[in-house]
Design goal:
6 helices; six-stranded mixed β-sheet; 20% strand; 199 residues; alpha/beta
C-alpha cells in the first residue's frame, strides 16, 4: 500500500515537471518580445478569412541622381533589415510602384519568400487600389511599398482616419501594420519604426 502511494506520488511529480517543461518550451517558440509581435503583426493562424493584414512602407533611401534612382548603400541596408524583420512572418504578396527604389526595397524579402513582385500604378487612386487589394487578398498578408505621398494616403484610408501620417523627404524608417476586416472595418492599425533612425 505504501509502495503504491509513493509510486503514484512520483508519477504525479513527473507529470507536473513535464507539463512545466512543455510550457517553457512553448514560450521560447513564440516570445512576446519578438520583432513580429512588437510590430503588431499577427500569426497566420490568427488571421480570419474576412481579414487582410497590410504592411506598408515608403521605399528605402535612394541615390540622388536621375529620374529613376536606385537605392543608396543605406537604402540597400534598410531593404535587408526589412527582410530580416519579416523573416518569421508569412507573406502572400508584395506590391510596388514601377520604380527601381520601390522594387529594390522589397526585392530581398520577395527573394527570401519566393514571391513575384506585383506592380501597381502610382496614378491609380489610393481608394481604388486599396479596395482591390482587400477584395483580392482576404485572409492574407500583403506588403505594399510606395512613396512619401502615396503611403500616408493609403494608411489614412485603411485606418479609417485613425492614423494620419506625414512622411517628410528625409524619413525612411516608418512601417505601418494594419489588419483590415471586410466585415467590420479596421481591426487594428499601428505605426512603428524600423532600421536606422531618420529625421
Amino acid at each position: 500500500m505504501k509502495k503504491t502511494f509513493i509510486s503514484s506520488l512520483l508519477l504525479i511529480v513527473l507529470i507536473a515537471i513535464s507539463v512545466r517543461i512543455s510550457a517553457q518550451e512553448l514560450k521560447t517558440v513564440t516570445p512576446a518580445n519578438s520583432i513580429e509581435s512588437r510590430l503588431g503583426i499577427p500569426l497566420q493562424s490568427e488571421i480570419k478569412s474576412t481579414e487582410t493584414v497590410l504592411i506598408l512602407l515608403r521605399h528605402a533611401e535612394k541615390e540622388n541622381v536621375g529620374n529613376d534612382p536606385e537605392l543608396s548603400a543605406d537604402g540597400k541596408m534598410r531593404a535587408e533589415e526589412f527582410k530580416k524583420i519579416l523573416k518569421n512572418v508569412h507573406v502572400d504578396a508584395v506590391f510596388t510602384t514601377p520604380f527601381n527604389r520601390t522594387r529594390q526595397t522589397v526585392a530581398p524579402l520577395a527573394a527570401e519568400k519566393n514571391l513575384l513582385i506585383k506592380e501597381y500604378s502610382p496614378k491609380e487612386t489610393p481608394q481604388q487600389f486599396i479596395e482591390n487589394i482587400i477584395a483580392q487578398n482576404r485572409g492574407k498578408v500583403v506588403v505594399i511599398v510606395g512613396h512619401s505621398n502615396t503611403i500616408p494616403e493609403m494608411v489614412k484610408i485603411l485606418s479609417n482616419n485613425t492614423i494620419d501620417p506625414k512622411i517628410n523627404d528625409a524619413q525612411f524608417d516608418n512601417i505601418f501594420v494594419i489588419k483590415n476586416s471586410s466585415v467590420s472595418g479596421t481591426v487594428s492599425a499601428v505605426q512603428k519604426k524600423f532600421g536606422k533612425n531618420t529625421p
